[in-house]
Amino acid sequence: MFVCRVFILIEIIVIFQCFCFGIQDDKGLLIGVWNPGSFLTYTPIPVNSKSSFNNASFTLPLNVKITSITSDPKNAVVFATISDTIYMFQNFNVSQSMFTSVEPIFEGRSAALGQIVFDYVSKNLYWCDALLYWIAMKPAYNLNNSIYKVVVHKDLKQPEGLALDPEDRMMFFSDNGPTPRIEKANLDGQDREVIVYTGLSRVLSLSLDVLNNKLYWVDIARHTIEVCDYDGSNRRVIRRMNGVQLTGLFFHQNILHAVSATSRTMLAIDPSSGSELYHRVFTFAQPFTVNVYDAETQRFYTDPCSNLPCQHICINSKSGAKCFCSEGYNLTADLKTCTDNSRFFKTGFIVNNDTMFAMHEVHSVSGQESDYYYLEVSSAIIETFAVDANSDTIYFLNSRNNTLDKLDIISQQISTLAPILTGKGLIFDWLANLLGWIEALSIIISYSINSGTTVRIYTNLQQVDSLTIDSHNGFID
């Protein structure tokens, strides 16, 4: 397992590199490389073809792929996404590409492409999860894996590119789903606005010029580097790199540093003229993601969250610092502490046996070990069930009593809604507020939750043994 190899690696580092400490004033270009997986650093930061390109590298265990990196130079820390885990590399020394310890910050994100970004004002870490269809965040230095919050979820199909302006309390992100677009929102995910929605294919990487309110991005399918203002205006193509699929981009002091894994190249572009400042080709290594490690570019700001004792999470929202709770918790009346109103997670999947429902957190699909919650219904035999997540309700067919039952997850109370003969394949139409199921392999029954009435909608069918529903279009299969 990779995790085992990483911890062996950590022990080696602690034993043999114990005198290698990060320097807070360090500066350098940091690249996450595939084949082999490694950190590659350049000091000083190259600015043109005449730069020295002095570099150092640290190779990670076999088959490791770094898909995104971000940094907190003031604390000599680099964060990196490797497979389904975000790691923190502490006491990072850019000139030697070494570090003294590694800690997993978040385990259980999907093993998909997606940027991670550090909020240097409030010390929060944000990331995209393209397979779970959300953007989430957590306090960057809180090692509790259960402390995180999903800040953007609705209508996301494939979020991958992400950039933050902590000073203006804004985030920008790309959704590379069927209708590709770039949006902006507040750091708490509120006030979303689409700013670019035409001429996009797959935007993998975003970067910001926070002094001049400029958004830069690379489109891996269009082979372009592009720019627009924060509101989407003044969009233009800076450079078209025919045949070069750029996977990483970072703006630093009026230079755009970019990398391409497929072309095995690192390069720099003048954002005004589009001219190439340097271009380097690797023999074997595949540079995938890039970051500039420079504390001077992160101007000093007083953290508005520093005086707010939030139990879980503090976000510098549009109206100022506010406390938020991790997934599955609610904020109490004091607006600082959090309470768990349900024994179940806010997001997850539910399984059952004859007399029990068990819920696993959604991250466990990535193979992460996690706790699970369960509810026993010993008075019933669960034949099939459906869930209304909005009302914290489980509906199930009880074959012991031949009834359609309702379980309130919060109160754990069970009530009977209607009698049944036999039943299987229970479905829930969350738009029409209807339940449906199969009886005797030939009849489909509909039950209205609003009116409490039961109707036979199909009869004389042949050997029906399962049902699915498309609530948006009102179809069942």
Descriptors:
2 domains; 4-stranded antiparallel β-sheet; mainly beta; Neuraminidase; Low-density lipoprotein receptor-related protein 6-like; Wnt-protein binding; Wnt receptor activity; Cueball_EGF_LRP_Nidogen; 1 helix; 477 residues
Q: Number of domains in the coordinates?
A: 2
- What is the structural class? mainly beta
Instruction: Please report the total strand number as a whole number.
Output: 41
CATH class of the largest domain: Mainly Beta
Mind telling me the CATH superfamily name of the largest domain? TolB, C-terminal domain
Instruction: For the largest sheet, list the strands in their spatial order.
Output: 3-2-1-24
Assigned CATH architecture of the largest domain? 6 Propeller
Q: Main beta sheet: strand number and arrangement?
A: 4 strands, antiparallel
Protein described:
This protein is mainly beta. β9 and β10 form a beta hairpin. The chain is elongated, with a radius of gyration of 26 Å. Strands 3-2-1-24 form a 4-stranded antiparallel β-sheet, with no helix packed on it. A 4-stranded antiparallel β-sheet has the order 4-5-6-7, covered by helices on one side. The protein folds into 2 domains: 300 residues, Neuraminidase; 129 residues, Neuraminidase, CATH 2.120.10. The longest helix is centred in the N-terminal third of the chain and has 15 residues. Helix content is 3%, strand content 47%. Keywords: Disulfide bond, Signal. One of its GO terms (molecular function) is Wnt-protein binding. This is Low-density lipoprotein receptor-related protein 6-like.
